[in-house]
Structure prediction request, 308 residues.
Amino acid sequence: MRLVFAGTPEPAVPSLRALIDSPRHDVVAVVTRPDAPAGRGRKLLRSPVGALADEHGIEVLTPEKAGAPEFLDRLRELAPDACPVVAYGALLPQRTLDIPRLGWVNLHFSLLPAWRGAAPVQAAIRAGDEITGASTFRIVKELDAGPVYGVVTEKIGATDTAGGLLERLSVSGARLLVSTMDGIEDGTVGAVEQPDDGLSYAPKVTVEDARVSFADPAVALDRRIRAVTPEPGAWAEFRGERFKLGPVTPTGENGLAPGELRAERKRVLAGTATQAVQLGEVQAQGKKRMAATDWARGTRIDRGERLS
Prediction:
């Protein structure tokens, strides 16, 4: 089947690689977000998906808008049968959706209709879901609302971060996407409308959303930190400055007020609304990321000082 793949970040790379490797499909072009400045020199860099396409000599299209006339003209010339999509990062207008004869097929990292939107993996961890997964569906105008072709499930571990879980889903989801494209080509896979119940949304997570409160119960604090690790990264304040936090471990111990710190020889504890948590890696303002015990050895923590 003749395909034009759309995607941008690293989690989309396994899917593109799987489709390139598939003997049944021909990826004739890739659509990705325009090159973006990165690093100290602000040098323009290709997206991870674009870089993989370059390695394989595949044409890369980087429209500013997915409905731009010149982009639509080129898409018509390419005449794809279908357009698989993984985390492309831009809305597709109806005139774009209408071009491939078999439509645009999205791989979304949740069990739809749960967690439609930009940050489904983060939302699932934050909510304490035990099971998540990935879904393939036909894109329609309404956000993540199209009929579903297939799903794959994944258990959420007690220590899973958003980054680690998304990495696993990107691999299992790639297999699902290839099998979905195979089934669409064969006519053996049908799309089923999403049910009305179980609908939830997962908007983009901002830096402000990643601020944590030690007035929350330890379980909620743990989930919120893991949900924003590694991006955008959890943080609180210490001595009036931003203090970044890696995942924590609930201890079952009490005796500290919310946010109150206690440095011991082999661990650093912080109080919550319920039980104390042991801090993992931390990063003080202007410092490198390090183990909390190393940070505490270089910082004199006064009795009663808190993270807030």
